[in-house]
Write a structure and sequence with these properties.
alpha+beta, 3-stranded antiparallel sheet, 28% strand
């Protein structure tokens, strides 16, 4: 992942989507703490907070309004989905600072 640290506020609304791209998971460990970890290292007893990119069919009407429908097959279009936004927010509030602290300059 690439993050630019500047003197301006850091807006990270898209971090959850990038977890999918980077094959990372937001987990709550058995001790209750939240962390962002590689999917292959999720330990037993850890609860994965789901956030997915689900395949959709997008329809844009002549008036410009759009609607989507989930589809059970592969699609080049996806929509972000998280079933429990409050838990997701709580997890990211704890896990993101720890992720940032783990970054090392090359």
């Amino acid at each position: 992942m690439f993050f630019c640290f500047a003197r301006e506020p850091d807006h990270v609304w898209e971090t959850a989507v990038w977890l999918n791209v980077a094959n990372l998971k937001l987990v709550q460990r058995p001790d209750g703490h939240y962390r962002i970890v590689p999917a292959a290292t999720v330990g037993s007893g850890a609860r994965i907070l789901p956030n997915d990119l689900l395949p959709i069919l997008l329809q844009v009407r002549d008036d410009g309004r759009a609607s989507f429908q989930l589809v059970p097959r592969a699609s080049s279009l996806r929509i972000y989905y998280r079933p429990d936004p409050a838990a997701n927010e709580q997890g990211f509030r704890e896990a993101l600072p720890e992720l940032y602290k783990s970054f090392r300059a090359p």
